[in-house]
Amino acid sequence: MPSRLPPIAHEQMTPEQTAMLEAILAGPRKNLNGPFVAWIHSPALGELAQRLGAFCRYQTGLPLRLSELAILVTAAAWRSQAEWHIHLPIALEAGLAPEIAEQIREGATPDFRHDDERAIWSFANELYRDKRVSDPTYATAVAMFGLPVVVNLVGLLGYYALVAMTLNTFGMRAEGQGEADLPFAEAAS
Q: Is the pLDDT of residue 163 over 90?
């Protein structure tokens, strides 16, 4: 699926678009891989979203392995090709077992070896599936991570759902991602 976004040459950008681009490139990401090319078309949204994203990715209080697990659950829930492609290697490098990632991609219930991973998956899975989190799942998450981190987890899930929706709507792929690299079957249009 080709991107639906028209290209914008740097010299055609408004000052707001240029400022957003520079903020992303100067921040912790240092690249435009992901939804940022879409958000340049709405720099007010893009600036707010990229700042929220930097917090959700790097400052939730969750270890990287668990943040990336939550992102993969989101990518699978939204069948977001680019989100999965970008975050799978990060999750694996952070210590998520490849078989767990594959079970999530397939939509199966993972066979977790770690209780903290099971807690994150259960929380995210229930929230996406049921649009609510059960009392036992909520209590487990709060006991394990603390209330502020659970609030941040909800923010992380919401932010990466926004990323997935952006990537899916505009037919965006990750840098270097070809049709052979798609983790999910494409729906017929």
A: yes
